[in-house]
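Problem statement: downstream parser choked on a complex file, so we are re-checking the raw output for the magnesium ion run. The parser issue turned out to be on our end (a line-ending mismatch), but while we're here, posting the original submission so the record is complete.
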Amino acid sequence: MTETLLQQAGLEQGLPDHFEESAWVEVIQRMDAIYTDLVRYQIELEEKNAELERAYSELKQAHQALQDKQQQLIQSEKMASLGRLVAGVAHELNNPISFVFANMHALLGYEERFRRYLEAVHSHIALPEREALRQKLRIDRILQDIRPLLAGSMEGAERVSEIVKNLRQFSTPASQKPESFDIVALCQRTVMWLVRSAPHKPQIDLDCPEQLVIYNYEGYVSQVLVNLIQNALDAMDGIAKPLLSVKLWQEQDKLHLTVKDNGHGIKDVDLHKLFDPFFTTKPVGKGTGLGLYISYGLITEQCRGSLSAHNYYQNGDNGAVFKLSLPVNLV
Ligand SMILES: Nc1ncnc2c1ncn2[C@@H]1O[C@H](COP(=O)(O)OP(=O)(O)O)[C@@H](O)[C@H]1O
Ligand SMILES: [Mg+2]
């Protein structure tokens, strides 16, 4: 910069030997012009700076908005799979509740007949009449029926209470901090619930150790498992002998989990699109195309693991396998 200024003032060689007054005036004029230029440059620089700051703050806002959108996407995918699960659970609860209702209805009718019979007994009617009433109201039949009806209702109520208890355990933990949890138990609960709500129950092959405690994001891992298992169940829809195999094992500081199905598999042309947002081959209402995209993001960015997919062909059987790997200890 100094060099340029001296050059601009024509002074790069130093002061000439015979420097006259008129030359000084010229130098001062040039310096003046340079000063004016400098002020202009400074103003321009300040303007550029302000522009840059504005652009930076806009970028920051856009980044925040993008992060919020991503969070919303994760939430909406969770809601979509929860919606399907709730529909399945409602179906599951309907059965025991409906037989409790039917039993209660029968018991109410019995109570009415019992009351009539007891009133007759208490009013001391003659024995033959009483016997006739007993036959008519089918009191002996009622006495035989009451116990199984009560036992059935009891069983139904127990089923409902067991379903609700399990559902509570299954509900995704709200905390989005890493924590210690047993991934085997999480896996078993997820499989049990999703299979329960599946229209065609597959055979299940769970190959896991008794227990495997890892330190990672339980909520995220749970969301990913729900999606992988739901996808496997969807892929086996209409298959004659559906088989869902889930395998879990540890290798040094890594946990590996595979979800394998004998469904229709993934078309070769679709293999590289699986993890793209909104890629789905399912009808509206059944698929959002966000499950694998979000799962991939959660696993690679938050849980520091990996997620991959491929088809398999084995002993005349075929289908898809998804492999999830996670660090056993996130810190
Ligand atoms: N186990 C699987 N077998 C075959 N195709 C699968 C399997 N899992 C996922 N896919 C394919 O990947 C697509 C995207 O899956 P996903 O992102 O979970 O969205 P969605 O389940 O809402 O369609 C599915 O529509 C399906 O075509
Ligand atoms: Mg899915």
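For whoever reads this later: The chain has a mean pLDDT of 88.
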